[in-house]
Design a protein that fits this description.
The chain is an all-alpha fold. It is built from 3 helices and no strands.
């Protein structure tokens, strides 16, 4: 029997559903602060990618200055 990481369970469970994006350490597969931060960065990128096409040119300039 394959483990949860080998089955890509965490990757599948962390996929966005419409406008809902998940950021939790379990989506990385290791329960520690580094995984929580990494999951947050992934979720922020997904939100940014989802929102970017709907922003005006001024808004796009403003979000490009955000540094993670």
């Amino acid at each position: 029997m394959m483990g949860q990481q080998a089955q890509q369970l965490f990757e599948t469970a962390s996929q966005s559903i419409g406008h809902i994006h998940f950021a939790n350490q379990d989506s990385i597969g290791v329960g520690n602060i580094e995984s929580a931060i990494a999951a947050a960065h992934i979720a922020v990128k997904r939100v940014r990618d989802a929102v970017q096409p709907h922003l005006s040119n001024q808004d796009k300039r403003d979000t490009s200055e955000v540094v993670l």
